[in-house]
Design brief:
Low-confidence stretches: 4-9, 123-129, 499-505
Distance between the termini: 99 Å
Number of helices: 28
Radius of gyration: 30 Å
Number of domains: 4
CATH architecture of the largest domain: Orthogonal Bundle
CATH class of the largest domain: Mainly Alpha
Mean pLDDT: 83
Largest sheet: 6 strands, mixed
CATH topology of the largest domain: Hypothetical protein af1432
Amino acid sequence: MLRALLSATRSARQEDPWNLAGRVAELEAAHRANWREPDLLLVRRAYRIAEQMHRGQARKSGEPYITHPIAVSTILAELGVDTSTIAAGLLHDTVEDTSYSLESLRSDFGGEIAIMVDGVTKLDKIHLGSAAEAETFRKLVLTAGRDIRVMVIKLADRLHNMRTIKFKKRASQIRIAEATKDVLIPLADRLGLYVIKRELEDIVLETLEPEVFTRIREHLGSDTDRLRQVAEIVPQVRRALRAYKVSAKLIDRPRHPYSVYREMQKHPGTGPADPPRLVVVVDGPLTDCYAALGAIHAQWKPVGGKFRDLIAAKKFNLYQSLHTAVNGPGGTNVEFLIRTKEMHETAEIGIVAGLKDPGADPAQVQLPWLRRLLDWQHEIADSGQFLDSLRCDLADQDILVFTGRGEQVMVPKHASPVDVAYCSGPSTGHRLIAAYVNGEIAPLSQPLKDGDSIELVLTNEQPYGPSKQWLEHAKTPEAQLHIGDWFDSREDLENTGELPVVPMQRFEDEVKDGKNRLWRSLIRRGRGLAGEQPLHGVASSLGYPDLDSMYLALAREKLDPDELADKLITTVDRY
């Protein structure tokens, strides 16, 4: 009997040396555990088609190619996506790499899965050459506008490819890691998929800076002090929470290698460090988060400047939590993240948490930053320029500012009033002449901070338009594109002779008149200017985007030349 069992086992191994059946079983188990009504028949049908179409293909590791779609779909199943997304994960490379056409896939599995596969499918590298990457990301963004799950599949696809990156040549490793760092990791952040983002960050660090990664990992593996500190802190936190009648689960949240690396970059000269950090997941309502905060602050003194309320003002990727740090036992700084169970799930899997809600329509799930990408991408004809703009957009964290009408506007960190103006389109941006930030006149180049209140001053008088100087401090692709288009269109009209001469002549005459008024006022004071350089700072401080705008204000008697002359003299004499 035993001999027969051993013989059957050897036969099974010979027929399935890569344990594909076991991998599919793990996929199905993960899907059953994380989705309320898994359709395993659909999963198995998608697997059969994928396995058949990829049969004979191998990866760089030597494994059958089908192991990649299985791994991608298992990552998706562990996130908790629906069955259609699991099926799309299994089929995501069939249209690109096999004879299986998109039309056949649509006929076999329906339009929903076909849209996802088509969105993830890469383009023809042979015909596109170096433009393939740019076209791929452009297509990804466009399809994500129809179904956000496309980006989730793409990130799972990249995660598994990064897990096996060691089988690539060194030059390819660096190229793929850099692209992952520039685009895919920020996309994971924008979707709130921190569980994927963290692993991608670590693999990129290990790929690009292996010695630093090894040093950090060794430190994290040998940091017994941290374990001792956490063991000492946890019972005290539990007692403090009980005193405030808060029921909560405490989770130790050690930093992952890239997080430690990021702190080392902020503080050059320091070594790896991982101070205690705990996640407090309250069982009750949102108000219990603030009660837990009060309990912790009553136990230990808060560290100044470390408190952030990301519940009242959730992040662009739906993340919500209270952040604080305290001087814990023995003067040790201890960090706390406080959130509800729902917030904790969103903090790990982001947009996927929303897709798990009964009745959620993936086609209707869009985030503000994605809508912004979709709004400006069609303005760019060149895919290379689109990818450059996408990288810039993703490189900056978003901040929230408030307009004078109480509207919330999301712009990149360090954006200027010019960016806010162009968020409402060129008809608003082109008419910008000044801005108030938190109630005070501010230069149009002033970088904005999270929570700033901004009021735009617009003109309806002709002629109006942007200044080329605005391009120096415009952060958003919308502003850069609309300003560039304005100057391109004027150049085209000038070249064809279609630009009206009278308005431009009037504009130039008014600028000259304003300049003369200032010079006359300076001459009366016995002063003059060797050049216009000192005027730029004065114009900016008065809220004018450029000197021509200030000269127009002088000509139209909106600015007193004598007051301007006095201000200019005071500014010059001070230095």
